[in-house]
Write a structure and sequence with these properties.
The structure is a homotetramer. The first copy, chain A, is built from nine helices and 15 strands. By secondary structure, chain A is of the alpha/beta class. Chain A folds into two domains: 143 residues, NAD(P)-binding Rossmann-like Domain (Rossmann fold, 3-Layer(aba) Sandwich), CATH 3.40.50; 159 residues, Dihydrodipicolinate Reductase, domain 2, CATH 3.30.360.10. In chain A, the strands form two sheets. A nine-stranded mixed β-sheet of chain A has the order 14-13-12-11-7-10-9-8-15. A six-stranded parallel β-sheet of chain A has the order 3-2-1-4-5-6, sandwiched between helices. The two termini of chain A are 36 Å apart. Chains A and B meet through strand 7, strand 8, strand 9, strand 10 and strand 11 of A and strand 7, strand 8, strand 9, strand 10 and strand 11 of B. Strand 14 of chain B pairs antiparallel with strand 14 of chain D.
Chain lengths: 352, 352, 352, 352
């Protein structure tokens, strides 16, 4: 390990931890100082894929090590807050898996604590660092799509039923963090409605539909599903100029930009003639070349850069809090007969 | 034309009329007696693809011809009722394009008139006669899927903005008629919610999401969209035993039956152990061979058989009325902030 | 039928005849004067889809009718020559299904007879009139692909074993006519090798591979197959600037133009350094919008235009003869242990 | 590292070496004793992804280490022989990347040396250990496909032009090793023809077609291509009973078994009636569930098992030599105007 490398403790040697360890280990900016898991043998096995990491079973033990600059948390959401607060109290920067925490209040605590300690709090919204999402954000920002008319995101799979959360809290953080990343100003819907199916009668939704009316008649919709036999990960971003489709499972054509649309001309009272007032564009399709880069590698670099440059990372705690706000609204909508409920977007402004 | 062929008048020489004419003309059971359209040249051109049809410009003229047993209506929904009632008054059987009419009340009038006159009223729910939907209905009826857990239907396209109806009334009749056909007992949801996007501000939804909670935590969802740059026509029917996917745009594999599922074992109070109580099946996939038959050819045969056997056709007026009931509910939900609204399923029972 | 419409007799009411009848019937340029088939009931049934056609059972009967300008032949290849020569002798223009005839000598007779009588002889190379192939020919002619580096055509299917021809003569005429259409100067390979599989031991190839070395190290290859369980119709045209893929079974993206390639820099003796002398381009992909037009409709218009303008049609007898030359070479190669054999490209020049 | 683990030296820290290191490191059966590469910094970086490996720059240094049981060679083919012979001389078992060596003679030397020293020589034919190929081999062995009628393998990509070998030697070892694995008795064609395109005029084929006539009219064909803009990895195994398609890039449906075929009934002299003697089956398609296992993990287990059980591994030196025999024949065919040339299958029998 070089003297100017940052040291990180990875907490959680389960599903995602190994990916974090591999990417921190391969990065010139980082070395893995420790792997922490309640199960020592899992921690040791994962530590053995590095030259530098020791295996520990408690966060206190990890924080007591020399050369630790940051803590990366890959444990269940319910445990994020205590680990993060301990790390912040010890003066460490923090990276958490999605979602930031299990509730808005808890996430807000984490954001506030990091802000007060002047430390970086970053969410590992991995998809935001994929070449596809970076390109989509760039195209939207450059106005290539025009005004956004609709957003339709589908993330369905024969997935694992999670013991502690419903399908919205399990899968929708991906979609919501992507929307937060690509929408100018971030994801700030006024209202959300959620519809859930619980056909196995597990007491939580396994099939979920989330609707967010946007400004000027636009609409965003997310379909998340643990019971689908096939896997679909597709995002459509409709625009007044062009419409974009991201198919994450098509490696040779992930992002397609369609120059197809409906141009609005004029509205009269006469409904019979309304069709004639619309003009259709059937233009070419463009598939931008994307670099072959691993998202996690970019993410760990961004974490290092934010620490060194003392600036918020691209997916900071506030972004993660906006995602939590929407998730919280889905839970309230489900409890209210799927009614449209308000999203509390105000609280986070106070701390920005 | 043979003496025992039935004679049909096709009303409307626009988009769908030619398909009806071609199939009636090729059927041994039918001959086309007339093509009726306000535009005589269109009527003549279409009539010239048969040896038997005359071209006329009014329904009265058509009904006055000899050898007319039935009237097939392929005009906008708003015009169905007067044409159908005139045909019924003249003692003719009636076939209508979807939807049956532009309102539940109007559709009910048509159903009642046909019942009173003891004539067949059939809806051309074409998709129900495709080999794929016939196979799906057969599999569901045989219990191959087990209990239905969720239904997800997507019908999106760069479609024509219709002058008189929104995207629900334009496209969802397809999905709803299919659901009515495959669900045991037909489509009879208690409640419906609809979410619409109108980003072009045309005063009607161009992007639509329709949700129907079903019994025992199951859920049905339909996505219809005029603004999608790509075309998707996919129906997933989730079941407790197997899950089925119908991809209508994949000619070599339209229907796939996945032996994948989540078996529910037992629920305890302890949420930590809930995951262990679930068992996953990752079995084989089966793609049933489907005959290569044109749906419209089967549909015109069913119309003839219903007339000859004096029995309701498979997609009769009541089925079409159940579809109208749901469409009507979408309109009421949209007017009520996308709330779940009741579906009026009772009225039609009185006339069955 | 209008006075200045051309009259056509369609010979053969089997698989392809109905498509010709439908398109001639819908064209403003044509009327169908007769349908001719040995089986009168088939002729009558097909004639009944027009207002104008009579049904006849002999070509002599058809040629004796008034108002016949042209004969369209949709019968097995072995019967093309006598029908075409009779039509030409009667002063009629001739359109034939692919291939032009069953041998080069026979095809040459037909070409010579038409030339002598100053009549149009056209081959219904239908694919050449699809929007996709028209676009490909345009792109190649404009130099968008650069020099052609390789051509790979796959046309495989669970197809009908033909009684009289092998898989090369049955399917490769499609590929070869397309190559003839898009290659500047037409398809004129010097040599051809053919490899055939006859696993059912029917005495003819059911699986075929056809190779044509082209100038400057380029190569063309065609795979035709009656035994494939899946259907593929794909053509790749590799170019020094860009490479094009035509997937005929993907309606939403038939033609894709890839700005990917390998740029040649310099060659040294040192093989170790050769890799460094090559530079790779991974640019964007472009999917040109294609009009929605039926190929057969364009084809019958081209036939009419060639007759009226007294000029060779785009797919004339000489083009069809070039296709026959290659087919003839495949047969000779198969008889010679799959050796590369010469293609006789000279004969046709004498008559041009 | 546990006392009964086998120790392996991985030679070559380039493209493939990291995959070997990762899998040996994660295996309970192995520990990585050393990483050897001429470039010390590459060796060190790769060694640092393990807890156990030292980095060395020469094979002699590696062989002198304690606890080395085997050597895994992931260097260019031309260097395999000296490394393998040195390892065998030192009493080590050997695993080599594909192809076994750069010539039949060289590969034979390696096979002979290992046999004489009673050591395991195994080829890392990775694809043979994928769940898909294991399933295919099982289905073929069980007679599920019946007699093999044709084999069509396509492996095309925008690939790297290799400095020292043509596209046949670069890519076809994959296809040939798979065929060797699934064909009962291994891959032993009598003759091979090869057609190559060299449009960049690099002095070697960049586009290659390889044909192998099999017994009883069956045929095998392999298409390898460095210039394709799209990536295809597809194998079709046609059978008299069923036909199988392996699409390696379709993660949700890699292997499909089609119950479609052509049943041969009887042949008469009368070619007109031949069509009637053939009967077509259009049965269901079956997609067997495949376990999610990493092929390399199974491969390193098989290497350990072969060593411990003192038995040939599934992809032993003789299998690799059969692949070399075919590659050698492609080179001779290319030098002989693409003629069918004999494959030397005898030599290896002498040592079996």
């Amino acid at each position: 390990m070089s003297g100017d490398q940052l040291g990180v403790v990875v907490v959680g040697a389960g599903y995602w931890g190994p990916n974090l360890v591999r990417n921190f280990n391969l990065s010139d900016e980082w070395h893995v100082a420790a792997v922490c898991d309640l199960d020592l043998s899992k921690a040791e096995r994962l530590a053995s894929t590095t030259r530098t990491a020791v295996a520990v079973t408690s966060i206190d033990e990890a924080l007591a090590l020399d050369g630790v600059d940051a803590v990366a948390i890959a444990t269940p959401a319910r445990t994020h807050e205590p680990i993060a607060l301990a790390a912040i109290a010890a003066g460490k920067h923090v990276l958490t898996e999605k979602p930031l925490s299990h509730s808005v209040a808890s996430g807000q605590l984490m954001v506030d604590a990091a802000a007060e300690a002047d430390l970086i709090l970053m969410a590992d919204h991995t998809f935001c660092y994929t070449p596809a999402v970076l390109k989509i954000a760039e195209l939207v920002a450059a106005g290539e799509l025009g005004d956004i008319t609709f957003i339709d995101s589908v993330r369905i799979n024969h997935g694992l039923v999670q013991p502690d959360v419903d399908v919205f809290w399990d899968l929708a953080p991906h979609d919501l963090s992507i929307l937060d990343f690509i929408l100018p100003g971030g994801l700030r819907p006024e209202k959300v409605a959620a519809h859930g199916g619980d056909p196995l009668q597990l007491g939580k939704a396994c099939v979920g539909y989330l609707v967010m009316p946007l400004a000027d008649g636009a609409i965003a919709h997310v379909h998340v599903n643990w019971l689908s036999p096939t896997k679909i990960r597709q995002l459509v971003v409709g625009g007044s100029r062009r419409t974009l489709v991201w198919d994450d499972l098509n490696p040779t054509q992930r992002v397609s930009v369609y120059d197809r649309g409906i141009d609005f001309i004029t509205v009269t009272e006469d409904s019979e003639r309304a069709a004639a007032q619309v003009s259709y564009r059937y233009g070419d399709t463009w598939v931008p070349a994307l670099p072959e880069k691993e998202a996690l590698s970019l993410m760990v670099s961004e974490f290092a850069a934010a620490i060194r440059e003392h600036r918020p990372p691209r997916t900071d705690g506030l972004a993660a809090l906006r995602v939590l706000n929407v998730l919280d609204a889905t839970t309230r909508s489900l409890a209210n007969g799927s009614a449209l409920v308000n999203v509390e977007n105000d609280q986070k402004e106070s701390i920005a």
